[in-house]
UniProtKB/TrEMBL annotation:
Family assignment from sequence similarity: Belongs to the beta sliding clamp family.
Cell compartments where the protein resides: Cytoplasm
Domain spans labelled DNA polymerase III beta sliding clamp central: 120-227
Domain (DNA polymerase III beta sliding clamp N-terminal): residue spans on this chain: 20-105
Transmembrane segments: none
Record keywords: Cytoplasm, DNA replication, DNA-binding, DNA-directed DNA polymerase, Nucleotidyltransferase, Transferase
Residue ranges annotated for the DNA polymerase III beta sliding clamp C-terminal domain, each copy included: 238-351
Pfam families: DNA_pol3_beta, DNA_pol3_beta_2, DNA_pol3_beta_3
Protein name: DNA polymerase III subunit beta
UniProt keyword Heme present: no
Domain of life: Bacteria
Amino acid sequence: MDVTAPAHRLSAAVSAASRLLPARTALRLRADAAGLTVAGRDPDLTVRFDCPATTHTDGEVAVPAAPLAETLKMLGAEPVRVVVEGSRLALRLDQARFALPVLPSVVESPASELPQVSEVDGHVFASALRIVAGTAAKDDPLPLFTGVRVQAGDGELTLTASDRYRMAVARLPLRSPGALDVLVPAALLTEAARQARGVVGLHSGPGRFGLSWAGGLVGTAVLDAGFLSEEAIPSGAVDTIVTLDADALAAAVRRVGVYAEDRRVLTLEVGDTQVRLASARQDTGEAEETLKADVSGGRTSPSFQARYLLDALGAFTGERVVLSIQPGMRACVLRAAETGEVALTYYLMPMLAR
């Protein structure tokens, strides 16, 4: 194999593949008339990224991912010559040469292409996913709480995630009709969507899900999606509706939260035309702040964990947010006052105030 490629473009492809794959996974570089392809796989995951290149000699080689990624990151934007020299893969520049060991060739059965079921705008998808995936658990003995449920049907894509204490549901338009219902590991899906550009294809097959875009492909095994559902959260007992500026409320939460106890729980006292945030800590004192708001329904005083409330409000930055408050320990439902291209619903469980 002998190929010349821009070092920064090759670095981006190698880094993207390395972030998605488990540590110590080898990368396969393949050069042909179309350019250079960086690929890797394990039993659950397949990734492929294309890199523009001038191919002098076709070929394919496997190399360790970590040293290749670290070396390329330091080379800048100049062209790099990537050539097999015996048992080494050499990276050649005008004044430097770096050589990595060529790993034994492993005969792999080609990954079956997952059929594409629909398409979505990549930027809108990544923006919605960033919010929804933030409510998934980072580590949980029940895998369903570490995933994002991806459902397609009736012309829209629905993304759902929850860590038991909160749930986010985003609905966005599909570019083409299709049917899909899978639960995908949240961290993997977020990283894959971050790499995607332009129109993103949604793929599905038995036990697998995939994303594709111009120059990239990620396919993964899926989790059991059956139990993660918005319908499982009662939301029909709303007795108080509060509408106010999300950024103003978030700023007040940050200030008042300084005085909260170790659990960082704040009380939101709803009045006739305002809401009052209050917290107290025995060793530092107490704080309260009042914000104007549009209020309808009964008066109530739910309490929330500050960081969860901030996460929820962050999804509505720059907007007015509607808080539909239910009595007792039922979820508070947050939505934007004016729905945009993405319809987001955020469920936040209240906390018991001390």
